[in-house]
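Job type: complex structure
Entries:
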Amino acid sequence: MFCKNCGSALDPNASVCIHCGVPSGQGNQYCANCGNQLQPGAVVCMNCGFSAQQKPVAGPGSKSKLTAALLGFFLGGFGAHNFYLGYQGKAIAQLSIAIASIVLTTITCGILFPLCFISSTWALVESIMILAGSINTDANGNPLGD
Ligand SMILES: [Zn+2]
Ligand SMILES: [Zn+2]
């Protein structure tokens, strides 16, 4: 593995290049696979064919896509998957809608029961988006792992 900023050889476990101080994976001047200098704006390395695109890689501490989707399917009406991914605003909105729906359903002896579908349908759609990769980062922009 090579530094994409200065092209010097890089320890695969190094998080920062010891030559230029740029975080590993940052920069687009050199091929990360063979260290060859890249043409500006190159999509693949002309030397080895390795993708030169800045691909977000799921780090060790990344959130699990599967966990998020399962939370969304089973507890998503309460915003569980959004709490997990750190999307506090959406999570609180879903939780509030769920609580309001339950309260209103109880008060009206079940007449307003369909309200309960609002947040659960919303969560179901988001669970599918997580599985399909439409939602592929957590609230901090970190890519989701498997
Ligand atoms: Zn470097
Ligand atoms: Zn290369």
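Summary: The pocket of zinc ion (ligand 2) is lined by residues 31, 33-34, 36, 45, 47-48, 50 (CB under 6 Å). The radius of gyration is 22 Å.
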